[in-house]
Amino acid sequence: MDTVTLDGRTYRFDRAVREDVPALVALLRDDVLGTGREAADLAPYDAAFGLVDADPAHHLLAVRDEDGQVVGTLQASVIPGLSRGGASRLQIEAVRVSSSMRGTGLGRAMFAWAHAWGRTRGAILAQLTTDASRTEAQRFYERLGYEASHIGMKRPL
């Protein structure tokens, strides 16, 4: 799926390009948690984009509206592993939909795209993490069939 039509408008699912970095960071900031943790300096994001883009195991998605504006993003990564019989997993991170687009079905379409992308690369399981305070996001993920099956833990390095 390279496009989706919602309410008569068509959205294109593209691999992000370097020129999208400011728009992607703006989506990351358009969020209660992102406002406080995303930096104004784009240089670290530009460097991170280069690393993600260079690795075929990762896809940084830019969803564009009919005017070419980025209205959604997520990072999809395939992680090979030994557990589950040597299974690969699809890791979905940094999911954001423009505040003006929430509730339109775009997020559901983005996940359908990500699941298909992961399947074509051999992933048998999709996983994600979400901040414990994001209860609305958790309900959305549950409607997509995700289960809170594990306890996620993080530690600064």
TrEMBL record:
The lineage of its organism: Bacteria, Bacillati, Actinomycetota, Actinomycetes, Micrococcales. InterPro entries: Acyl_CoA_acyltransferase, Bact_Acetyltransf, GNAT_dom. It comes from the Bacteria. The keyword Calcium does not apply. This is GNAT superfamily N-acetyltransferase. Keywords: Acyltransferase, Transferase. The keyword Amino-acid biosynthesis does not apply. Residues 11-157 form the N-acetyltransferase domain. GO terms for molecular function: acyltransferase activity, transferring groups other than amino-acyl groups.
